[in-house]
UniProtKB/TrEMBL annotation:
Family affiliation: Belongs to the copper type II ascorbate-dependent monooxygenase family.
Molecular function as annotated in GO: copper ion binding; dopamine beta-monooxygenase activity
Predominant localisation class: membrane
PROSITE patterns: DOMON
GO BP terms in the entry: dopamine catabolic process; norepinephrine biosynthetic process; octopamine biosynthetic process
Protein name: DOMON domain-containing protein
Amino acid sequence: MPTVACVLLALFTVSFAQRPDFTHHAVLDPNGNFQLNWNPTANGSDYFTFECVVATRGWIGLGFSSNGAMAAADMVIAWVDASGNLQISDRHGPAQGNGYPPVDSKQDYELVSGRKNNTHTIITFRRKQDTCDPQDWKITSDTTRLIWAYNDQVPTSADDISKHTERGVKSVQLVNPQTKDGMSAILADPSTVTYDFRLTSVTLPTEKRTLYWCEIMELPKWNKHHIIANRMLVQKGNERYVHHLVMYGCGEEDMSEHLGKPAACFDDMGVFNPMHKCSSYRAIWAVGGEDFVYPSNMGAPFFEDPKQRFVLLEMHYDNPDLKPGITDNSAFRLYLTEKLRPVETGRITIGLPVSPVWITIPPKQQRFTTYVYCPGKCTSRMTEPINVFTGLLHTHLLGVAMRVRVIRNGEEIKSDMRDDHYDFNYQTPVYLSKPLVIMPGDDIIVECTYGSMDRDTMAYGGYGSDNEMCLALLEYYPKRNLTSENCMSFVDPKNLTEILGLKKDQVSLGSDGVLSENVVTVMNKNQQNVTIADWYKNDLKVTNEMVTKLQNYMKNSPQAVFCNLQGKDDEGGNVTDVTFFQIDGPIENNRPYVEPPTVCSASTGSSLAATTQPTQTTTNHGASKVFSEVVHEYIDVIRKFILSRVESSDG
Ligand SMILES: *[C@@H]1O[C@H](CO)[C@@H](O)[C@H](O)[C@H]1NC(C)=O
Ligand SMILES: *[C@@H]1O[C@H](CO)[C@@H](O)[C@H](O)[C@H]1NC(C)=O
Ligand SMILES: *[C@@H]1O[C@H](CO)[C@@H](O)[C@H](O)[C@H]1NC(C)=O
Ligand SMILES: *[C@@H]1O[C@H](CO)[C@@H](O)[C@H](O)[C@H]1NC(C)=O
Ligand SMILES: *[C@@H]1O[C@H](CO)[C@@H](O)[C@H](O)[C@H]1NC(C)=O
Ligand SMILES: *[C@@H]1O[C@H](CO)[C@@H](O)[C@H](O)[C@H]1NC(C)=O
């Protein structure tokens, strides 16, 4: 071989080795001018390596922010200077507003490599996951708002950074594996088949921002397959309106009479249309989500039973500006294989039922939390542990944090199924690097924390974007018998409204168990019968005392538990039925999980290391053993209502 070729090859190899292979990738701006590649931890060290590829020959800036604003954000600015030298500057946003970012007293970003060509600047740098510098962001598995900026002007020094010409913000998950990993292998595999569920010409209303659109679709008569990936094909231009999609199985129910008759999922009273008998949840996509790819040994069963012929597609559209003339033909694509994989997955939902008398969030609160209790009495029905490997944590606009806590023998275990920086517009599933194991008998608490500073009236549970939810939609392996299972809990609705100043006989909960915002009515002080939605808006004056009582009530009151898990009962018999029972107070979490503190070497001179022990506040306020009569009465209607949705599900 000629020597020249050998030399070239050697050169090529050297430069290639200097640039690490990046496992994670995101395009931060809509035009693809700011691309980011990164490795969560390079070779097991606690360093994160980032590569910015930006269409500029000036400076580039990347920041880590809790809310997308520049104030108090951790920022780094880098450029190739006029002499061709690489420059980097660790900075932070001003305490308030969007002014000039001061330089950190401690520099924690290290240059790895960089260059620029005629159009682009490419700079690679690294930093520790936790730099122990209070002026830096500690990288966690939460959603991170990355702020990005650049300017074509080349700085002459770190004191000469001109104002950005372009900037923006993009939410990403920096730590966990990306849900789209492995997509190229699936696309390249000739045994992969696709099946599209396409909505046809849905016209968005202009009188309300939220539309839930439901369409029944008939499945082809295929052999059993595994779903190995899915992708949302959002119609071009409709990205801001298509909010989320859920696909439900209809069990063995014959839904043929609904074919070709798509319609709104609820009427004005918030009551489901008959299609909503389909309730076993099979797949989900939400705004911000990318392709979802199953681990290579796993698949979710599909077409497994020829008697299960129908699915329901439920699409949530959000049109906040009430823009007229929007029609949508988006589709949801499943990637399937007939080469069945060794491990099958199943789904469980743990959350609060959606109602204005089960979820209430007072206005002007920095943080207000609702609690779902799924006690060991329910999980002990499982015959073996389940491994939760992914899940969608779902609230609406006010959600700021959410976590799934698992308590085993009185001690909370580590759970990464959590997000302290929730972003309504970035609902990509949490994809865990290590599964969260739930053992039979474990207690589960789901906490949803809301921030309502910009609200003037009570926010409450409902299906609209302005209303709230609290649901952890978890996927696990190995699959159990039901296609989807639920564990929900809820407070006594009349005791809740009593805290808000209503006497029990002023409130009428309706008779169909739906308890939606237009069904629950209140006799107001003028002896008018109004919906609870109107009463919250026009009559309720929220006081501080009420907020304190309400927060205490949401956390510490007895709750009714709806347990829909198949398995064994206390005596070893088989349970296939849904059961309701009550718990007298909250699930105790006396030994909460404490994150081990970062070891900060003395040389860093940082005073950050203090870890705060979470304070133990869960107490049983001696709540009555007997659920109030109202709940007993309503357990029956709720049971009827939920059963009407569950009975038709597969299993
Ligand atoms: C990890 O180390 C190996 C061997 O030293 C090297 O080949 C590889 O490129 C490194 N990976 C990263 C992501 O730095
Ligand atoms: C400059 O580098 C970028 C990023 O690697 C590349 O996409 C672009 O094609 C390059 N431009 C030129 C003119 O070489
Ligand atoms: C599921 O059902 C099958 C057949 O009825 C049974 O053999 C199996 O033990 C069940 N599995 C679980 C986890 O309940
Ligand atoms: C209030 O109106 C609703 C329907 O509009 C009705 O169902 C309810 O019974 C009424 N309540 C009273 C106390 O009149
Ligand atoms: C429960 O179901 C399993 C599997 O179907 C069966 O083997 C077992 O005998 C059943 N147990 C009881 C107590 O019915
Ligand atoms: C509801 O309030 C009544 C007193 O008005 C109390 O006796 C009962 O235990 C409470 N029930 C629940 C479930 O909080």
